[in-house]
Design goal:
Shape: globular
Order of helices and strands: HEEHHHHHHHEHEHHHH
Strand order of the largest sheet: 1-2
Structural class: mainly alpha
Distance between the termini: 10 Å
Helix content: 40-55%
Largest sheet: 2 strands, antiparallel
Strand content: 5-15%
Number of domains: 2
Number of strands: 4
Radius of gyration: 19 Å
Organism: Exophiala bonariae
Protein name: HNH domain-containing protein
């Protein structure tokens, strides 16, 4: 998989995570199908279950189809430098690094959002992913772009030799992998001060798909993750995680 193709897959996964978070919140509309022209069929209102306990009302394949459509349309419209963005690219180009360093500036988000087609915006409005005037394409893209840039510019981990071929929660092996710090870096100092774990445990990681990675950070605070959910086995023992994994396994991308 070349860099651009790999980045498109990452963007698709970031969009999927954003769509899941919004679509399976109560009272949101669930995407059912997308016409080839990019215009969604009439949205059907449905009562969805919360993320922590996804229900049958939310069709995983429909969410995947909708996310796939959005990713294809959005990625195709992005500037070339963003399509090929990588850790090595920003290391070797000061201007590129300045533009795409996190947090992204409002002007950068607005500029990228301007490339998004009206058909995509209409689809997002139809399925209540954005709700003018409360939210707009910039607010939707801000989270997606931040997740995308973070994923494609992160330095190669020293734990790369531990990388698995499939997500350690949902076991899907056809989506991009990210690494999750089992003991969040933001509280390493506190962990050592309180004596919760030995220093050699601090850099333990689990390899997760973007959707499962997002789920884990929603299910518990950084402190709770460090104190209670510091191994992948402990995480996978949770009932809500098991239900989530069963649900997200049903996702099958139509494109490779």
């Amino acid at each position: 998989m070349d860099n651009v193709a790999g980045n498109e897959a990452v963007l698709r996964d970031c969009i999927f995570s954003a769509i899941v978070e919004k679509s399976i919140s109560p009272t949101k509309k669930t995407p059912k199908a997308i016409k080839k022209g990019g215009t969604p069929k009439k949205a059907a209102s449905t009562e969805a279950q919360p993320c922590e306990n996804p229900g049958k009302e939310v069709d995983a394949s429909a969410l995947a189809e909708f996310s796939d459509y959005l990713a294809t349309e959005i990625f195709g419209s992005l500037p070339e430098e963003l399509k090929g963005l990588s850790y090595h690219a920003i290391q070797n180009d000061a201007a590129l690094s300045a533009t795409w360093s996190l947090p992204l500036t409002l002007s950068v988000t607005e500029e990228v959002s301007a490339y998004v087609s009206a058909d995509v915006v209409d689809s997002l409005v139809a399925y209540a992913m954005i709700e003018p005037p409360k939210s707009d394409i910039q607010s939707f893209m801000a989270g997606v772009l931040s997740a995308f840039v973070s994923a494609v510019t992160i330095p190669p981990p020293k734990w790369v030799s531990t990388k698995t071929s499939a997500c350690e929660i949902c076991e899907r092996d056809w989506v991009p992998m990210t690494y999750h710090h089992l003991i969040p870096r933001q509280i390493h100092a506190k962990v050592l001060k309180r004596g919760w774990h030995e220093e050699q445990q601090l850099n333990s990681v689990a390899w997760l798909c973007r959707a499962c990675h997002t789920f884990v950070h929603r299910m518990a605070s950084n402190e709770e993750l460090a104190r209670e959910w510091y191994t992948i086995d402990r995480i996978c023992e949770r009932e809500d995680v098991q239900k989530w994994a069963q649900w997200v396994r049903r996702v099958r991308w139509k494109k490779t």
